[in-house]
Description:
heterodimer; A: 452 residues; two-stranded antiparallel ribbon; 4 strands; B: 361 residues; Rieske Iron-sulfur Protein; seven-stranded antiparallel β-sheet
Amino acid sequence: MLEHHPDLTASVIYGLGWLYLLLFLMNTLWVWRSYHHDGEVKMFGQGVPVASFWALYAAMLGMVATAHLTGSDNPQMFLLRMPDAFKSAVDSVSGPVSFFSLSVGLFVAVILLREWIVKPTVGWILLNASLIFLALSMTDYDFRQIVGKPDNVPIVAMLFICAFFTWLSFACAVENDQRKAAGKPLYSQEKNEKILVWPDLVYSELICMVLVTALLVAWGIVLQAPLEEPASSAKTPNPSKAPWYFLGLQEMLVYYDPWMAGVVLPSMILVGLMAIPYIDFNKLGNGYYTFNERKFAISTFLFGFLPLWVAMIVLGTFLRGPNWNFFGPYEFWDVHKLELLNNVNVSEWFWYKVMNTKMPVAPAGSDPGTQAGYILLREWLGLLLTFAYLAVLPPLMAVTIFRKFFVKMGFIRFMVLSNLILFMASLPIKMVLRWSFNLKYIVAIPEWFFNI
Amino acid sequence: MEEKKPSTADILAKIRAQKAAAAGGSPATAPEAAAVPVAEPAPPVAAALVETAPVKPAAPAAKPGSTADILAAIRAKKGGAAAPAPATPAAAATVAASAPVAAAAAGPAKPLPSIAEMVRAAKPGAAAPVAAVKPPVVAPPMPARPLPPSAKKGAPAPARRSLAGLVTVAGVSLVSFVLGGVFASPVLIAIGALIWCVLLSPFAMAWAALSVVTGIATLGTARFMFPNVLVEPPSKFKIGPPSDYPLNAVSNKWKDQFGVWIVHTDQYEGKDLIYALSTVCTHLGCTPSWLDGEQKFKCPCHGSGFYITGVNFEGPAPRPLERVGLRVAEDGMLEVNKSMKFQEEMGQWVDATSFVDGSLA
């Protein structure tokens, strides 16, 4: 395999040394905590404190950090790097389908394994694993080019922050759920942590404000803004990317007409978020963390947020390269990467493949009414499918899986809820259809700028 | 469970009670404050004003609170005219009531007290005895207040010139001007000018100026919509002879300047054609790139792909690239006309102005 720019520079190794040193310090503190909190395990016929394993791990990290900080004079000889076999394996399996499946799988796993994940030791192990994965991957040139780009630094930070807060909310929810199950009062009722606004809260906010300002100033000085050449209407940068927080939208635009992905679906997201308080009939979980009492609400929201928004941002930032092709995390961004995608519309598939004829076309010079009739005839299957999806599915849902909801919510609120859910589900459905059947549009009427 | 917190009303009541106690036990919100000798902020002055006799201060221990209090105390001590700026409306009412009775003393133009005096007066022990010893303080004569508007009711309202009258005057003046101009008569012009001057009340002038300025601004805004620069390249331009464009090639030559590709291919319905494609992606308007190796136009924004014919085949673009007008000019050169566009899905590519016969090349 042709290795593109395999060299590790001394500065990269030096920087990684600092990262490992930070990990070493963090784990040293963890050893101290583990010594006081974790018990012993029986091993070789005697009790061994769990902290000793952490101490071993921390010592190893310390040595790795030392090796990086002192041995950076000959980068070519440096051995601690991501193995090539792993990199090519990851590249070969990565694609939009596997990425989306992985993110949905992770989401389901987090929900199902929440009681295990929220244990502090498990959370700590996951944090360590992600940081070491990041550090090892940084030894790869292509990974470093993309993740280390000044543009993308906030997204890496966002990932860790997002993961932390998800973990934290699940930790609080699991704690409360276990208390409820045991018949004990809620955490916030039993261990009242109320403090005074002045001075406690205001002082904390002041300190946070100073620290964040200092961080932003330092960041602004150290990482330069990646300015590009002056804009030209004749030249679009390749790849041309939206601001990072809109990359989910940009990914959505790959599967939908701009009118749908740029106007209708974003409006539905905003209106839907505003509608949540009005369609929520569950009075439980008000003012405290819980999962078991609000399973549907929390899972639905997190599905829309984590796999459909955050994961799409990751996909758009790190894995979409020139010509908006998909590239593995360790893959070189080749402008001439060839991906053959012959997308077909439902109408084309129906008339060419199923009926084996030509598409109905209005005779030249016919009046607009006849043309409209021919267009509707051409697209009848897609129109029928769309109608069924939006009009037939909600009643079906009302009498089957959402029976209890329908009874509690009443007709109008249920219709709003079901339509919002259907619109949210339309994105993954369209993505899966594109990937599996190369489907372009279900209804394709470019004459009227109406494509679904 | 928890101790009940005092409400805001409770707290305010408490504070009021404390203040009242400090001020000598008088109720803070006495309704007839003007009548009772203890007006709240400045006891000595108020007492003196009401009774016009030496009086024992109500609360010698009370500290004068505000600067106004201090000043009042000093003035009282000096024996001149009493406070020119009564501290409270209640006191003012008292003063007004007793104005005719009180003998006038020095005017309110007393020099301001020095800081030392202020400090002396501020000490409770100093101010109180002085107020007790000094001769009676007489209230100054209040300047006569302007009567309220209701008193003027009987007076006749000033006559208003009606709009019709104004218009008539203006019309007469205009007619005199015009006639003066027509007959070259200085007398008529002078009469017109005279009437115009009469007409020029400040209001007329102000309205006239406002109308003129607003009118100019409106016209300027309208003018703003028609800038006198043309940044667009010409929509019609010559691109050389057809022989410049070999078969099955895409020319990027005019992309940067005019935003068109010149394509010569026989792949569209098997006909040998030269046509000009607009370089605007039909998805969201980015500029695709022609990839010679893959023989396709590929958009960097969302990955739409188009064949050399301009027909979309991959990615989200819903329709083919648009053709613009192309013809062979009289001198044998190809001429692009960007003011016309031809969309395939509308069946416009059969239009003869959308392509040129490729056999000319």
